[in-house]
Design goal:
heterodimer, A: 398 residues, mainly alpha, 13 helices, B: 102 residues, alpha+beta, 4-stranded mixed β-sheet, 4 strands, globular
């Protein structure tokens, strides 16, 4: 029966536990190589429960009592407390004969040893629990990584089955689209690498020949993209037209399956100063003709959409025996879409080629870099936008 | 064959197309944008359409639109677009005009 308040006895027990287990804590942490700073961070993370307790212990230990508690100090504290509190024992307080005192000392020692053992046991159990938790977390992490990998592959192989707008696939794999997605990923990486090379070459004042090589490489890289897109168009024209294979901001500026040729010229033009004759006129003509071609294709696409809509809206035809032939007619129009995308890509490619013909090597290099950086900017913007902090959903108080 | 050539020479710019072909429509728009009004012959609305189509293929143009400038076959959409971006389409038109008036 304790004649003291609970918290005081708590304090005493805690003290003894600290004293008893300090060695264990110290040796444990040593063997596991955890610096004290990690204690703090893992506590902040709040993940590792047992660790937190250990941290608390450590802090209390080092903060409150210093790391070098001598036996005398403990004894001092101990006896002091005991005199005041009566240390959970039923023995009466106050001095008595030497025999009784020595008995009490022996008892004290025994109890202390027992408590040490107890504390050590508890410490070992906590350590075990912590390690088990670590193991479980590790397994979970491995599982998540596997799942992530699988999902990534599914997105790649499933192609347009990912994303609500492409319900047509229903999980059926389109290998043409699969291939395109994988190749496009590589294409973007290579583009990034080439941009870096161009930037470096321009900064370090590379030779004409070196720049020429880089420009040719850049143009060829775009040519590769157009070839890839042609194959993808055959696999699924709607996939290509949707722009789902690009980032969200790029998609916003999408025109018939890709970037606008006029956009290209707008991006490049500021990079070209100074233009020398006959460049200004040539550039103006190129800008004008690409704009006209762009307008013509746009109007053609509009017409195609209108005629296709008319075909699909005419519901009196879509029945019975004529259903098959109507489907065939619709498919024919879809093929026309392929031609338009092909023409749009052709226009892009021609604009790039003409641009490089009009400009000096140095100008062309600057132009290509500007173009590459522009697309990088759009991609980065898309990522940031996707990751932006959202407003917490408002709770309505009624 | 003669019909094709006859029709092809009937105007500065002649387009052989099909009524459903929107790419032909686009090429037509392009010429209009640079100030030319092409003649359009729709093969699917012509009784000799099939023959004419085969003839055009033999001449080297496998798809509509088939574009003639000054009676000479230029090609299809690709060729027209390329010429225009190179800045060679308008000069070609002009040269035909000069020939016609001289």
């Amino acid at each position: 029966m304790l004649s003291v308040s609970d918290c005081e006895s708590h304090f005493l027990v805690h003290l003894l536990l600290v004293q008893g287990s300090c060695l264990l804590v110290f040796s444990w942490s040593q063997s596991m190589n955890y610096p004290s700073t990690q204690f703090a961070t893992s506590r902040q993370m709040g993940i590792y429960e047992p660790f937190r307790q250990v941290g608390v212990w450590r802090e209390t230990f080092s903060g409150g009592y210093g790391s070098n508690i001598g036996a005398s100090t403990i004894a001092e504290v101990d006896s002091g407390q005991e005199n005041k509190i009566g240390f959970g024992s039923h023995e009466s307080m106050g001095p008595s004969g030497n025999d009784q005192e020595s008995n009490r000392s022996a008892d004290k020692v025994q109890r202390r040893l027992e408590q040490n053992r107890e504390a050590a046991r508890k410490s070992r159990m906590r350590k075990k629990a912590y390690v088990q938790q670590l193991e479980t977390s590790r397994l979970k992490l491995a599982q998540l990584e596997l799942e992530l990998d699988r999902t990534r592959k599914q997105v790649a192989y499933g192609g347009s089955s990912f994303g609500g707008s492409h319900m047509g696939y229903n999980g059926i794999v389109n290998s043409g689209i699969t291939t395109f997605e994988l190749e496009y990923g590589h294409w973007v990486e290579e583009q990034h690498r080439q941009n870096n090379e161009l930037r470096k070459a321009l900064q370090e004042h590379a030779t004409e020949i070196e720049l020429r090589l880089l420009v040719e490489g850049g143009l060829n890289h775009y040519a590769t993209l157009f070839r890839m897109k042609a194959d993808a168009a055959k696999a699924d024209i709607f996939y290509l037209l949707s722009g789902i294979w690009r980032t969200s901001v790029e998609r916003y500026f999408h025109w018939i399956g890709g970037f606008r040729p006029s956009e290209l010229l707008n991006i490049i033009e500021p990079q070209l100063e100074p233009l020398t004759d006959p460049q200004p006129l040539d550039f103006y003509n190129l800008r004008q003709s690409s704009q006209q071609a762009e307008d013509a294709l746009s109007q053609g696409m509009d017409k195609l959409q209108q005629t296709l809509a008319k075909t699909l809206e005419a519901d009196q035809i879509w029945s019975g025996e004529t259903y098959g032939s109507q489907m065939a007619a619709a498919f024919e129009k879809f093929e026309a879409l392929e031609s338009f995308v092909s023409q749009a890509d052709h226009l892009r490619q021609q604009t790039l080629q003409q641009m490089s013909r009009i400009l000096t090597t140095h100008q062309a290099a600057r132009g290509l870099l500007a173009l590459g950086e522009y697309f990088e900017r759009l991609r980065a913007l898309s990522s940031l936008w996707a990751a932006r902090p959202r407003e917490p959903t408002e709770s309505y108080a009624f | 064959m003669e019909k094709v050539l006859r029709l092809a020479s009937a105007n500065d710019v002649v387009i052989f197309s099909k009524s459903s072909c929107c790419l032909c429509y686009a090429v037509n728009i392009l010429f209009q944008e640079i100030g030319v009004r092409p003649s359009v012959n729709e093969l699917d609305n012509d009784p000799d359409g099939r023959e004419m189509e085969k003839c055009l293929m033999r001449m080297g143009c496998s798809a509509v639109p088939a574009v003639f400038i000054g009676g000479t076959l230029i090609g299809s959409t690709n060729e027209v677009m390329s010429l225009h971006l190179k800045g060679q389409l308008i000069p070609k038109l002009k040269s035909y005009e000069q020939n016609a008036t001289s």
